[in-house]
Design goal:
With about 450 residues, the chain is an alpha/beta fold. Helix content is about 40%, strand content about 20%. The protein has 16 helices and 16 strands. The strands form three sheets. A seven-stranded mixed β-sheet has the order 10-11-12-9-8-13-14, with helices on both faces. A six-stranded mixed β-sheet has the order 5-4-3-6-7-15, with helices on both faces. α6 (about 115-130) links the parallel β3 (about 105-110) and β4 (about 130-135). α4 (about 45-55) packs across α5 (about 60-75).
């Protein structure tokens, strides 16, 4: 019922002649800028809500998550009056042009690992193109997005343009995915649920679908890389946000000649990571909930049972909360569960390789294709690897450097379509072809 009410409001806001439909594109951009400014004003409060809901350190939420949504909204605010079609020189006495029109009501379902950032990734292109929105935040982390709703009102958006419906996936999420009056669905989350979203879209009204799903991303370290720099970047690429990151570099392939040194230093760095209350000066808070905690601990146990070498961590931290010690495994084999399944936690797997062709083949031996990293001082080698890795993003001598300008999405079972950058706009417009006869008699 709540989803029906939200969709009804979104449809009314998109109706011909409505304040939103008749608003100048540049004015839409000004509203988006105002929303970004209000988020910046309330940045401290939003960071604290994110820490309370998600468990990530307040400092990280303030500097990363708040910054992320502010930047994305400002970026897409600049696109509002630059979305346009083309004139096409077709044969005969005709004029032909295309219009890029908003799709209409867009359903958006976001995950719990980066609630504010993901709201920004979804809001930005949808609003820039002139659509209306029905968003369902994750049931674990609705608070920051609900506060942003109050800022939407304060910014002066017409009623019904942005609607947020908290609820559980099997009820509210399913209702959004199946609703016949929603014209497009965008989902970020697990591959398992992504399949359900796609099936629901097909079973209902064939709504357009974009999916940003799971990953098991390879991070390749060659022996000519700056090893200390690579160790720090690989550490951050895995342990950031408690390992709860879809593009975490969780399969770290290290060339055999530097393997032992890399493992030793990586384990030392992980063991020094500071855990605790996210409202204090820490690097890592608790995992999101009991279900995720149990999944992580179960996969750690499987790594030990299947013969991987536990170098540090592997246990619960403390006696309260869902804290998991930063964990490092060496001597990991490609067929182990920890090397195949998305753990979504602070667990690093370090695998050994010898040759270039070998590591490319092994890196691609996965159902996922979201991201990859390469560390080497040989740019030809780096570009060769990036050209042959099946992944939507490849970072060379860096990792997880995602900005509002850069398209993000996956190959294979890591998703459909792209978010961020100009590419995301394609998923929020319909292309209409208009052909006009200039000479009626000849046209006949």
């Amino acid at each position: 019922a709540d989803v029906d009410l939200a969709v009804k409001a979104a449809k009314a806001a998109f109706k011909k002649g409505s304040a939103w439909r008749t608003m100048d594109a540049s004015r839409r951009g000004l509203l988006m800028h105002k929303l970004a400014n209000l988020i910046e004003r309330d940045r401290k409060q939003l960071a604290e809500l994110e820490a309370l809901d998600n468990g990530k350190p307040v400092r990280e939420a303030f500097h990363c998550d708040c910054e992320g949504i502010i930047n994305v909204l400002r970026y897409y605010a600049g696109w509002t009056d630059k979305i346009h079609g083309k004139t096409i020189p077709i044969d005969g006495p005709f004029m032909c042009y295309t219009r890029h029109e908003p799709i209409g009501v867009c359903g958006q379902i976001i995950p719990w690992n980066y609630p504010m950032c993901m709201a920004g990734w979804k809001f930005g292109p949808a609003l820039a193109c002139g659509n209306t929105i029905v968003m369902k935040p994750a049931e674990q982390t609705p608070l920051s997005v609900l506060h942003i709703c109050s800022l939407v009102v304060e910014a002066g958006f017409p009623p019904g343009v942005i609607n947020v419906v908290p609820g559980y996936g099997p009820t509210a999420g399913a209702a959004v995915a199946r609703h016949p009056d929603i014209n497009k669905i965008a989902f970020t989350g697990s591959t398992e649920v992504g399949k359900l979203i796609m099936a629901a879209a097909g079973d209902s009204n064939l709504k357009k679908v974009t999916l940003e799903l799971g990953g098991k991303s390879p991070h390749i370290i060659f022996d000519d890389a700056d090893i200390d720099e690579a160790i720090q970047i690989a550490h951050d690429g895995l342990f950031a946000n408690h390992g709860q990151n879809c593009c975490a570099g969780s399969r770290i392939y290290v060339q055999d000649t530097i393997y032992d040194e890399f493992v030793t230093k990586s384990a030392k760095l992980a063991s020094e990571r500071k855990l605790g209350d996210p409202f204090l000066d820490v690097q890592q808070g608790p995992q999101i909930d009991q279900e995720q905690f149990d999944k992580i601990m179960g996969l750690i146990k499987s790594g030990i049972e299947q013969g991987a070498n536990l170098k540090c961590g592997g246990k619960r931290f403390g006696t309260q909360g869902y804290f998991v010690e930063p964990t490092v495994f060496s001597d990991v084999k490609d067929d182990m569960r920890i090397a195949r399944e998305e753990i979504f936690g602070p667990v690093m797997q370090i695998l050994k390789f010898s040759t270039l062709d070998e590591v490319i083949e092994r890196a691609n031996d996965t159902q996922y294709g979201l991201a990859a990293g390469v560390h080497t001082t040989d740019i030809k080698k780096a570009l060769h690897v990036s050209n042959h890795i099946s992944a939507g993003s490849v970072w060379i001598n860096c990792y997880d450097y995602v900005t509002e300008h850069t398209p993000f999405g996956g190959y294979k079972m890591s998703g459909i379509g792209r978010e961020l950058g100009e590419y995301a706009l394609e998923h929020y417009t319909e292309v209409k072809t208009v052909t006009v006869a200039l000479d009626t008699q000849e046209a006949k």
